[in-house]
Design brief:
62 residues
Length: 62
Amino acid sequence: MKNKLGTLLKKIVFAFGLIYGINLILGKVGICIPINYITLSMTTLLGVPGLLSIFAIFFIIK
């Protein structure tokens, strides 16, 4: 149980860092994906493909 909780916490921290880093890079272009529980959970569960799908949805809506 403790091992699974640690793995989940590592994934959440990685997802937060990934979204934050992408926002730092693409913020200069005017693209900003908010860090909230939906984007964080989607990136945590799906990883980089989840983040790419968030950006695809962003461009479809805009």
